[in-house]
Specification:
single chain, 392 residues, alpha+beta, Butyryl-Coa Dehydrogenase, subunit A, domain 1, Butyryl-CoA Dehydrogenase, subunit A, domain 2, Butyryl-CoA Dehydrogenase, subunit A, domain 3, 7-stranded mixed β-sheet, two-stranded antiparallel sheet, 48% helix, 15% strand, globular, Acyl-CoA dehydrogenase, Acyl-CoA_Oxase/DH_mid-dom_sf, acyl-CoA dehydrogenase activity, AcylCoA_DH/oxidase_NM_dom_sf
């Protein structure tokens, strides 16, 4: 059984980050083409996968790197800095593939992850918050349902989906071949266009029981302490890193715009108001990053001691993600206000602003989550506990 012992901190982080950075120029050059395509080109996706970015969240016992939470945040941050859609695609594949490998039983995990060090493993994409229907039958379930926002589906081999078992209402998560669902191909949006976050559905598909696991589990079958976080907290890792990477890139782009325009007639970037607002945005972003580091350092210490996160830690994981996302949204408004035409013409500022506008709509950063955090922290619901994104 996995999940026991101290938290693993990988020595592979620096190498993965270096390989991601080496792709930065290519990601910039191909960003417009990826948007037009609606997904990352196959060679771009393969180059990113070859950095080890998905292997970073695969269990050490299966040949993965099994990064600690803050290492995973930094990985998502770095990829998202170079391209927000690429970063989103990769952290989605990373999270769903890594948790599937951790929580599936031995035979199923062995079949899907036969040789991780040599790149022979399944890639999973899908949706886990609105469950499909699972009718129990001998050996498994007959599954039907419709799911949304399957980021990275173009590159996946298998589906990750939430299901609710008929008769017991138990929530489980399945893994099944992508060929068993119908892809709806309906991702037509302003931002994160290259993530291929399409909807999909299936009707009466048989899924063996061993290819499912309890959705609320915090007990991994494979891998160590990081997987005791459970699905929602593991998802928060990638979203936090994504927001930080996007915020950093936007401020760096604004600095480049300012450098090109300073000294020209009537340049707004030469005003004291611009300098004050840039400094304020910089302070907000750095403070958000520091608090995220603080929250996750505390959680890592708990995991390293063989314990589960407390309700307060679960609350702060959700709150720091919400705060980071809203902070970066404010940074984006500052960039939009001062970047002038660079914010509306095709280019990195325009693209990152559109991607940010879409990414901030994710359910993990919704106003309801913020309200639930306030209920617990204020003492209004002291006996409540988190069930996914709900306080119950």
């Amino acid at each position: 059984m996995g999940g026991t012992g101290r938290l693993h901190v990988s020595a592979e982080l620096a190498g993965v980050l270096e390989r991601i950075d080496a792709l930065g120029g290519m990601l910039d050059e191909r960003a417009d083409a990826a948007e037009a395509l609606g997904r990352l080109p196959e060679d771009t996706a393969r180059a990113l996968l070859d950095t080890g970015i998905v292997r970073a969240e695969l269990p050490l016992s299966l040949g993965g790197y099994e990064f600690a939470p803050r290492q995973l945040i930094e990985t998502a941050e770095r990829a998202s800095y170079h391209d927000a859609s690429a970063g989103w695609t990769m952290f989605a594949l990373q999270m769903m593939t890594g948790t599937t490998a951790a929580y599936l039983a031995g035979d199923a995990a062995a079949a899907l992850f036969p040789d991780v060090p040599n790149g022979k493993y399944a890639l999973l994409s899908g949706h886990g918050t609105r469950p499909g229907r699972a009718v129990p039958v001998e050996g498994g379930y007959r599954v039907s349902g419709q799911w949304q926002f399957a980021s990275g589906m173009a590159h996946a081999t298998h589906i990750h989906s939430a299901i609710q078992v008929e008769g017991t209402d138990e929530l489980r998560v399945l893994a099944m071949p992508k060929s068993q669902v119908t892809l709806d191909g309906n991702w037509d949006v302003l931002g994160l266009r290259a993530t291929h976050s399409i909807d999909y559905h299936c009707a009466d598909v048989y899924v063996p029981h061993e290819y499912t696991y309890v959705a609320t589990t915090d007990t991994p079958v494979n891998g160590g302490a990081v997987y005791r976080l459970g699905l929602v907290n593991m998802s928060a890792i990638g979203h936090t890193g994504w927001a930080l990477g996007v915020g950093r890139r936007l401020l760096d782009e604004l600095r480049r715009v300012a450098a090109a325009r300073t000294g020209s007639r009537g340049a707004a970037v030469d005003t004291s108001q611009f300098h004050a607002e840039y400094a304020t945005a910089e302070a907000r972003l750095r403070a958000a990053r520091a608090w995220a580091n603080d929250v996750w350092q505390d959680v890592e210490q708990t995991l390293d001691q063989g314990e589960l996160p407390s309700t307060e830690q679960d609350t702060l994981i959700r709150l720091v993600l919400n705060h980071t996302t809203s902070t970066v949204s404010e940074v984006g408004r500052t960039v939009h206000r001062w970047a002038g035409s660079a914010a509306i013409r095709r280019g990195p500022v325009d693209r990152f602003l559109r991607d940010l506008g879409t990414g901030t709509q994710h359910i993990t950063s919704s106003p309801v989550v913020l309200q639930n955090c306030g209920k617990w922290l204020s003492g209004a619901r002291p006996e409540a506990r988190w069930s996914f994104l709900d306080l119950t």
